[in-house]
Amino acid sequence: MSDYHIDGQTFDSSVGWVETRYAEFDSLPLDSGLTLAPLTLAFETYGTLNDERSNAILLLHALSGDAHAAGFHEGDSKPGWWDMMVGAGRAFDTDKYFMICSNVIGGCRGSSGPSTTDPATGRPYGLRFPVVTVPDMVRAQKLLLEHLGIERLLTVTGGSMGGMQALEWVTTYPEMVASVIPIASTHRHSPMQIAFNEVGRQAIMRDTNWRGGDYYEHDHPDAGLSVARMIGHVTYLSDESMHFKFGRRLRGKEVLGYDFTTDFEVESYLRYQGDVFIRRFDANTYLYITKALDYFDLADGHGTVVEALREVPADTRFLVIAFSSDWLYPPYQSKEIVRALKGNGLDTTYVEIHSTFGHDAFLVETDQQTHVIKHFLEVTAHREARRRA
Amino acid sequence: MSDYHIDGQTFDSSVGWVETRYAEFDSLPLDSGLTLAPLTLAFETYGTLNDERSNAILLLHALSGDAHAAGFHEGDSKPGWWDMMVGAGRAFDTDKYFMICSNVIGGCRGSSGPSTTDPATGRPYGLRFPVVTVPDMVRAQKLLLEHLGIERLLTVTGGSMGGMQALEWVTTYPEMVASVIPIASTHRHSPMQIAFNEVGRQAIMRDTNWRGGDYYEHDHPDAGLSVARMIGHVTYLSDESMHFKFGRRLRGKEVLGYDFTTDFEVESYLRYQGDVFIRRFDANTYLYITKALDYFDLADGHGTVVEALREVPADTRFLVIAFSSDWLYPPYQSKEIVRALKGNGLDTTYVEIHSTFGHDAFLVETDQQTHVIKHFLEVTAHREARRRA
């Protein structure tokens, strides 16, 4: 693996330059009863699939993530969203494992979603795109694995919505999964999580530019989408991290402005996050993905979450990670997952990482996650080797 | 006191039918260096001022409150915002005390604010209304007390922003205040509190109907204001109260809708709260009052919060109340107030009420608040009587 130099820094363990690839499928039946046809999935892979096809790991992204988890796209100065976790010697060691990450259906980063052209009309779907669920996302990923010729995964993992998909994976395809690492996640969306998402959706849908979702040939609902993103960002931080990061420091002024320009650094941060988000994200996708999150309840169709996990083989390993200051997906929700797993006698390790970073911790607490995940993967790979022998 | 019957219920301890009154003043110098002239303050009073003028209590309202704290306006079926706390035999016993509540300046419920006619132009001020601060609100209330001939208050009290005003009162006019009851409040706005307010402001200011604040002769920025209110409501509840109040219950359907109509009860609740708010509240006032909150730091001009309280007489009594599930104004902020008071050797009682209602608890946890406040007021009144003797 060669060295990568960007802005004077050396990224000698980076997966380096990467490209997004696209897989096409005829159709996918959805939970809503509708069928999505055709279907494109954007994906990236890092590392090399071994001859036994036994070293594949499926990495699943969160609400605003995409297939570009690691490395650099041509011309970019910033790497993928989990770059510090994926590379040679990193938590997900690409010298050992073959990593796959795909953009979810309903997304706007290469996979089929509301901004995709509807073959029936030749125009973007808009709200005519069918509503998708977390199980639908998982069934789409199953098509991708078949396409790649992978029959069993060493691990499925992801943070936030990625963790929900990982849990859905092991309940839907229990025989395909050797281990699962849900991070900063939940087995079902709580009313408070639904509430924050609903406010974001209302910000978009009440923007006059939204036009019932048919805005692609006009001005986009940038105001609504940026407000939705600002709400999100407040929930991703913590009271403590905001004290540390911003305090009551003023932005570009010595004294209060006594007007409605920016006074505080935290205001500037939020406005910036809102403004950059609209350049890379589609407002309708925000509606679809938050709705999929809100619909998510692992118990659906099973009665209880314990029942949902009943078919999981006894030798499946689980590593459940939560962060102490995460109040959007609080540790108690991860503990509920752990209880349901232990209720099925499953091999479960729970790690609550002390962090002040709130929900964002799963993206930034690299060292502590690396420590536990690396060891967990080594043991899992060892057991899988014995299983095959 | 007569009985009041509304919707079949008897309100025999209610203050009954009340009217908002208005006081006019020439001018008020503001923290910004500007002067507001003229100035109207809307206010209500309940109970009777005694001959010694020693039983007056100033009640201060929160962000969306107004002068109408108790009793019923002609034709209304709902009482004022703290009705269960103010009346004969209630926590603030109107058989004993004379209660005064005024709408803050910058407001939209009768006091001068951005929707008031600017005498210089004959049109609503809009953003030409000067920015106001919590100390400005307090100086306006001082004018009202002079108007009413009241030189000393038995208590100043209020929840949330009302508590901030109460703290400001005792630092600005320490000789006028026998006791202070700040409830679910803070001595300064934290970056997270600023952040939630800023998102609400951005929702309003990015609404195309806002027009830089000059919307009074056009469509109002209802979309932005309702989204701001929805954000507020999520922060007023708690994870626990939302589980209890809504859970994942569906609204008016047996199964998920797989569309963007309302699915969950919590969504319906938020949309309703947003929609009713725009009928009674002005979007520009939302900007002004949230800005005053964000500017609030009791230490301003004093160095530290301990220094800010240095001039408070040693016999001033404090009752600081917080609620266990309030994550918008968490108990640790009330404890910081308590530490600063004790740092000045002041007579301070701290009560943390166990409640699942989040920040809303100060409006709904009547029984527990009544218990501690009633006793506190009796002791304060007794000491005041001795003081005068």
| Continuous helix count of chain A | 11
Indicate how many domains the architecture of chain A comprises: 2
Helix content of chain A: 25-40%
Multimeric status of the protein: homodimer
Kindly report the CATH topology of the largest domain in chain A: Rossmann fold
How does the helix and strand content of chain A classify structurally?
Answer: alpha/beta
Overall shape of chain A: it is globular
Radius of gyration of chain A: 21 Å
* Euclidean distance between termini CA atoms of chain A: 31 Å
Largest interface: A-B, 58 and 58 residues
Beta-strand residue percentage of chain A: 15-25%
Strand order of the largest sheet of chain A: 3-6-10-7-13-14-15-16
Can you tell me the CATH class of the largest domain in chain A?
A: Alpha Beta
Main β-sheet of chain A, in a few words?
Answer: 8 strands, mixed
Characteristic key phrases:
homodimer, 389 residues, alpha/beta, Rossmann fold, Rna Polymerase Sigma Factor, Chain: A, 2 domains, eight-stranded mixed β-sheet, two-stranded antiparallel sheet, 11 helices, globular
Summarize the structure.
2 copies of one chain form a homodimer. With about 400 residues, chain A is of the alpha/beta class.
Structure description:
Two copies of one chain form a homodimer. Chain A is α/β, with parallel strands linked by helices and 389 residues long. Chain A folds into two domains: 276 residues, Rossmann fold (3-Layer(aba) Sandwich); 106 residues, Rna Polymerase Sigma Factor, Chain: A (Orthogonal Bundle), CATH 1.10.1740. Chain A has eleven helices and 16 strands. An eight-stranded mixed β-sheet of chain A has the order 3-6-10-7-13-14-15-16, with helices on both faces. In chain A, strands 1-2 form a two-stranded antiparallel sheet. A two-stranded antiparallel sheet of chain A has the order 4-5. In chain A, strand 15, helix 9 and strand 16 form a beta-alpha-beta unit. In chain A, helix 3 packs antiparallel against helix 4. The first copy, chain A, is globular and about 70 Å long. The mean pLDDT of chain A is 95. At the A-B interface, helix 3, helix 4, helix 5, helix 6 and helix 7 of A face helix 3, helix 4, helix 5, helix 6 and helix 7 of B.
